[in-house]
Specification:
Number of helices: 1
Largest sheet: 7 strands, mixed
Oligomer: single chain
Distance between the termini: 39 Å
Structural class: mainly beta
Strand content: 35-45%
Helix content: under 10%
Shape: globular
Length: 130
């Protein structure tokens, strides 16, 4: 099991930006796809973005395309989610998750399938005010 720690959440006005980070000391992200998910109050958790550091593949939910950018810093074992042009509907708890049992080929066939991710962080709150 790998400990994933999210940070960077907070309160921001609509149109603003936040950068989330997912760190895993001692764990090599390069070998495993990492995903960002979010859960808003009263809603199911949904996939936001996924990255495979080993081959550079990324996936984004339609709702965040063009506004969010996922990246990995393999030297620091950290994955970032840069969120720009934030909207009130982006308000949620954001989680990062690692797919430890599946390679990128499987993950990117269904990148937002939660069952493929078997290691989750504790989440970080993002609140966007209108």
């Amino acid at each position: 099991e790998v400990q994933l720690v999210e940070s960077g959440g907070g309160l921001v006005q609509a149109g603003g930006s936040l950068r989330l980070s997912c760190a895993a000391p001692g764990f090599t992200f390069d070998d495993h796809p990492i995903g960002w998910f979010r859960q808003a109050p009263g809603k199911e958790r949904e996939g936001v973005s996924v990255i495979s550091a080993s081959d550079g593949r990324t996936w984004y939910a339609d709702s965040v395309k063009g506004r969010f950018t996922i990246s990995s810093d393999n030297a620091k074992n950290t994955v970032h989610l840069q969120m720009n042009s934030l909207k009130p509907e982006d308000t949620a708890v954001y989680y990062c998750a690692a797919a430890l049992s599946w390679g990128a080929g499987v993950i990117f066939s269904e990148p937002d399938l939660e069952a493929l991710y078997n290691n989750w962080g504790q989440g970080t709150q993002v609140t966007v005010s209108s």
